[in-house]
């Protein structure tokens, strides 16, 4: 089963993306994605 998570930009804290991950995974996701507010590629982390 998969769980929906929200990804937030580490620079501006904008919540730009949603994705899914395995429910058993305890680690937080970190992905480099494009942020519209910053107008550049930044690291996005999973939020609570």
UniProtKB/TrEMBL annotation:
The keyword Ribosomal protein applies. GO terms for biological process: translation. GO terms for cellular component: cytoplasm; ribonucleoprotein complex; ribosome. InterPro entries: Ribosomal_bL33 (IPR001705), Ribosomal_bL33_CS (IPR018264), Ribosomal_bL33_sf (IPR038584), Ribosomal_zn-bd (IPR011332). The keyword Ribosomal protein applies. GO terms for molecular function: structural constituent of ribosome. Keywords: Ribonucleoprotein, Ribosomal protein. SUPFAM superfamilies: Zn-binding ribosomal proteins. It comes from the Bacteria. HAMAP family: Ribosomal_bL33. Belongs to the bacterial ribosomal protein bL33 family. NCBIfam families: PRK00504.1, PRK00595.1, rpmG_bact. This is Large ribosomal subunit protein bL33. It comes from Piscibacillus halophilus.
């Amino acid at each position: 089963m998969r769980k929906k998570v929200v990804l937030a930009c580490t620079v501006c804290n904008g919540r730009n993306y949603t994705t899914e991950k395995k429910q058993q995974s305890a680690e937080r996701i970190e992905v480099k994605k494009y942020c519209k507010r910053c107008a550049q590629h930044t690291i996005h982390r999973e939020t609570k």
